[in-house]
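Reviewer comment 2.1 asked that we show a complete input and output for one of the modelled complexes. We chose the (3R)-3-hydroxy-L-norvaline case, as it is the one discussed in the main text.
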Amino acid sequence: PILILGACGQIGTELTVELRKKYGSECVIASDIREGNNDLVKSGPFELLDATSYGAIEDVVMHYEIDEVYLMAAMLSATAEKFPMRAWNLNMGSLFNILNLAREGKLSKVFWPSSIAVFGPNTPKEDTPQNTIMEPSTVYGISKQAGERWCEYYFKKFGVDVRSVRYPGLISWKTMPGGGTTDYAVEIYHEALKNGNYQCFLNEETKLPMMYMDDAIRATISLMESPAENLTIRSSYNLGSMSFTPSEVAKSIQKHIPDFSISYAPDFRQQIADSWPSSIDDTLARKDWGWQPNFNLDQTTVEMLENLKRD
Ligand code: VAH
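Response of the prediction step:
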């Protein structure tokens, strides 16, 4: 059976739905600190669970005989700047809980998400390589860089089968994201349909690596199902699909909503975005486990507008 921590979050929600479709609802236990999403609670086993509590996680792991954990609970970049110590404790405490359970032989496989936030202001911005300068300047990025080091350490030292990808900004319609710097790329679609305009908290030429959620979920499951011997990276794989600026998203939306207008009012999140790459070299993910994105910006826009209209 599989346990998902942070199952009610932006990635966790869609990961739970997909894994339940694939393996059957009873085999996928969703958990979160609160019952954020009652569809998940109704469609299969759900546990209220604090990802920073080792004992609580161990109880659930033993009770359901869990063998795989997806740790999707975390505090994202913007919120983490406001509460650095809470972010560090949640992001690292939860990771140590899962790595130690695996080290004790209670789990056979672990997924842990990293992020393009591991890169910093002096990292090469275009086609950012898998191995390069990494001096993250955000609390969140520092926690992801430290997390990657610990994942590789537990793999090499204790043989823990932990796998990870550096997600770009993710665009989804099923749940609102919480506290991210790339969240503008989700909010803009909601606002376009609701008000016909959007005030963007990043400036118009901020180019960031982005991905549609269906691609991110497929990448996650594909990595987890790959034979261990194919994997040459045990910190975290670069993962790319597209890069765009807020003005490019606006143009893509205007193909469907011609009167849509965007304005720009950069806030503290501009500095966070400026420290991140513009595009990612994910050659290794393509080579080691056949990664291939499916959605470009215009296809993402169609998906977002179609599904949000219906919602
Ligand atoms: C954030 N969505 O904005 C997350 C992600 C690369 C961005 O880490 O913090």
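The CA atoms of residues 59 and 217 lie 27 Å apart. We note this here for comparison with the apo prediction described in Section 3.2.
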